[in-house]
Every structure is written in structure tokens, then in C-alpha cells.
Amino acid sequence: MFDYVITGTGFAGSVLAERLASHAHKKVLIIDKRNHIGGNTFDYYDEHGILVHKYGPHIFHTNSFDVFDYLGKFTKWRPYEHRVLASVDGQLVPIPINQNTINSLYGLNLNSDEVAEFFNTKAEKKSLIKTSEDVVVNSVGRELYDKFFKHYTQKQWGCDPCELDASVTARVPTRTNRDNRYFTDVYQAMPLYGYTKMFENMLAHPNIKIMLNTDYKEIADLIPHKALIYTGPIDSYFDYCYGTLPYRSINFVFETLDTEFVQPTGTVNYPTSQAYTRITEFKYLTGQKHKKTSVVYEYPTACGDPYYPIPKAENNIIYKKYKTLAETLSNVYFTGRLGTYKYYNMDQVVAQSLTLFKKIVHAQEAIKHNGHSATINI
Ligand code: FAD
Ligand code: UDP
């Protein structure tokens, strides 16, 4: 009998499988309904031999030494700092908006203090920042909001930024310096041989069995197990008893061109009328040398695989009902972007699963010593 069945081979499930098998010596069955491991970070060599990310560009960045160090057991790293340009007013300018952006866009030569003053004169200061519109308008004003955020956000989320939590656009800061990097985290690197290789290393343990092309519901009653870790959508586990949690999906359209590089940075964002939001050129991310180049266009859509939980108050109310129900179950744990309905980056998911692992071990020790377990909140 397996100690744990883990549903989902993404970061959330694979971290727990690895920790439970190698550190807690448990027998684990990890399953996925897809035909590969790695969840949304899965990468593979396309028909031209170029390493691409099947579910859109994944750039690793974190401020957590513990997360970076833990993943470093399973991969070597290639240092990589992502840069993004936005196509605005016929120019390609840096996003996050910074000193270079303002000077290029308006033909100015402002220094850092002058850019701060520029933002102050444009900003519409809000006493309460509640929405994704408030965040941007409060810091740079409506004109830059319209140029960089309004349409991109409408495309990406299918709603106006004023309907989304502040946390969404707050992911993209405003700078007065000339730092053109997309992220400023302490650790910024890509797995040297790709994400899939890293996951293969994580799951290569004699206590871990992998079963692909299998939906949890198909095996739930067939395979005896003492506990379940579920990283699929939490509403699906409960057969949508409180209604469906909305997700945003994306159609990824790949293209390979007979040229070495096609755009000046890893990603170009299009906060414009095109139906796609951004184009990413993989060789910047992976460092691969090849005489051709592969790119992916992202077309957001309401239907399809659940990629983005939609951070809105009304959705959080539904999620809380599922979370409360989940906490009444014993030996069933939910983690990950879908399992806890959180717009988490990879490093946050790794940290969440490492924390859950510690809680599970702690609860088991409590049973051993006191005969009863500590409560585990997800
Ligand atoms: P997932 O990777 O979604 O894994 C869940 C797995 O569970 C899936 O493989 C699914 O098939 C499986 N599953 C679900 N239900 C069932 C079931 N019933 N039975 C069996 N299997 C099931 N993060 C970053 O840090 N940097 C980035 O640059 C970045 N870019 C991103 C770009 C895009 C387009 C997207 C969508 C996300 C991006 N992310 C990025 C976020 C990142 O993908 C997630 O944080 C991370 O992959 C979440 O891991 P997870 O294991 O929680 O979920
Ligand atoms: N965003 C935007 N314009 C941009 C970049 C981002 O409006 O040029 C907004 C948009 O709502 C997006 C959010 O900021 O969904 C977060 O951006 P991020 O690049 O972090 O999105 P992700 O990589 O998670 O898709």
C-alpha cells in the first residue's frame, strides 16, 4: 500500500513526493492526467531541436535562499536576468516603467529625481488602493496606465483592471532608476538542462512511482493509500459543490523562424490592439545556440486548461468555502497554485510545499508521541 498518493507532478506535487520519499522514507505514487511530468513548467525540444516551454515562458526568480538551495540539489543553474520591452506608441520601451522608459517615450533626458517628480505630477493619489487600476494610477497616473496596463490587463484577464485585486498589477513595480530587468530578486537563474530534466531528477527515487495519463478520479478507489496530496483545482476535488472557481486560460501559438534572433529581448509585451499579450523568444531564456529561433505568442481565453486563478474578492469567497470543507478532511492536503487558488510563482509554490511537508512531519510526530495529531491548515 502507498503511504501517499499525490495528484499532480508540477512543483507542488513533485516537491512533496521528493521530500516524503527521500526524507520521510514514505512510499509515494504521484499521478498526472497529462502525459508528462513537471506541470506547467514542462519543457521539451521542438521539431527543430529548440528547447521550448509547452505552457508559456517560465523564468525562475526568488528571494528565498532555502528554495534556491533546495532546487539546486536537482539541477545546475544558468544565470539569467529577464528583460521585457513593451510595444507602446510605435516604440519598444522597458517595462517595468523606469527612467529609460520615460525618457524614450517622451523624448526627455530626466535623471532619477526628475522622473520621481514626473510621476508625482501625473499620479492620481488614492487614499485606499483596492484594485489593479488604483495601484497603477496612484503611482504613475492615467496616461501611462492607459498605455501600459489597461488593455494588456483587459486582454489577459477578460475584465477591466478596476475589477481585479490590487495584487495583480502590483506584481509590476514602477522604478525611477534605469534598471531594465523584469525582476530584482536575489536569485535569478534557469535550470541549466531545462525544467523537465530537473523534475526527472527530483522524482528519481526508488520510493516514488509515477503514473501518467491518469485522472485522480479514475484511481481514487482502486489504489489503497493512507493519505492524499491534491494539487489539481480544489473545486474539482469536491465536484464543484460550491460552484466552479473561475480560471483564465491561454492559447499558446508557437512559431519557428529561420533567423538567429527575431526580437531584442526575451519577451516583448503588447498592451495594444493585438489579440495576444506577449511574444517570448526561448533562446534568450535557455541560452541555447541554434541557427533558427522559436517564439510563443500568448492568446488569453476563458476556456481551456486552468492556468491563472483570477484574484477577485468574489472568487476568494468561493475558495474560502472549499478551504473550510478541505479542513474537515483528515489525511487529505491541498497545495499549489490550483489546490489553494493562489496566483503563485514557482518559488512560492515550492516554499508552500516545503512548509506543508514540515507540517505533515510535525503532525506525524505528534501522533507518535501524544496519540493525536496537530491540526494542519492549508
Ligand atoms: P501545475 O504546474 O499546474 O501542476 C498541477 C498538475 O496537476 C498538472 O500537471 C495537472 O495536469 C495535474 N492535475 C490536475 N488535476 C488532476 C487530476 N484530477 N488528476 C491528475 N492530475 C491532475 N512562475 C514563475 O515563477 N515564473 C514565471 O515566469 C512563470 N510564468 C508563467 C507563465 C504562464 C503562462 C503560467 C500559466 C504560469 C507561469 N508561472 C510562472 C507560474 C507557474 O507555472 C506556477 O507557479 C507553477 O507551475 C505551479 O505549480 P503547481 O504544481 O501548483 O501547478
Ligand atoms: N501587466 C500589464 N502590462 C504589462 C505587464 C503586466 O498590464 O506590460 C499586468 C497584467 O494585468 C498582468 C499583471 O500585470 O497580468 C502581472 O504581470 P506578470 O508579467 O507578472 O504576469 P504573468 O507573467 O504572471 O503572466
Q: Can you count the beta strands?
A: 17
**Termini Cα gap:** 25 Å
The helix-and-strand class reads: alpha/beta
Q: What portion of residues is helical?
A: 25-40%
Report the CATH superfamily of one domain: NAD(P)-binding Rossmann-like Domain
- If you average the pLDDT, what whole number results? 96
Indicate the overall shape. globular
Helix segment count?
13
- Determine and state the CATH class of one domain: Alpha Beta
Ligands in the structure? flavin-adenine dinucleotide, uridine-5'-diphosphate
- Within the CATH hierarchy, at the fold level, what is the topology of one domain? Rossmann fold
Low-confidence runs: none
Which strand order spans the largest sheet, edge to edge or round the barrel? Answer: 8-7-13-14-15-12-16
Strand percentage: 15-25%
Major sheet summary line: 7 strands, mixed
Provide the succession of SSEs: EHEEEEHEEEHHHHEHEHEHEEEHEEHEHH
Radius of gyration: 22 Å
Q: What's the CATH architecture name of one domain?
A: 3-Layer(aba) Sandwich
Can you tell me about this structure?
- The protein has helices spanning 11-23, 65-71, 99-106, 112-122, 132-140, 142-157, 195-203, 216-219, 234-237, 282-286, 313-326, 336-339, 346-370, and strands at 2-7, 28-31, 43-45, 51-53, 61-62, 77-79, 84-88, 91-95, 187-191, 208-211, 225-230, 247-257, 267-269, 278-281, 293-301, 308-309, 332-334.
- It has 378 residues and is an alpha/beta fold.
- Among the domains are: 2-37 and 203-245 and 309-370, NAD(P)-binding Rossmann-like Domain (Rossmann fold, 3-Layer(aba) Sandwich), CATH 3.40.50.720; 84-170, no CATH class.
- Strands 8-7-13-14-15-12-16 form a 7-stranded mixed β-sheet.
- Helix 1 runs parallel beside helix 13 and helix 5 runs antiparallel to helix 6 (142-157).
- The longest helix is centred in the C-terminal third of the chain and has 25 residues, at 346-370.
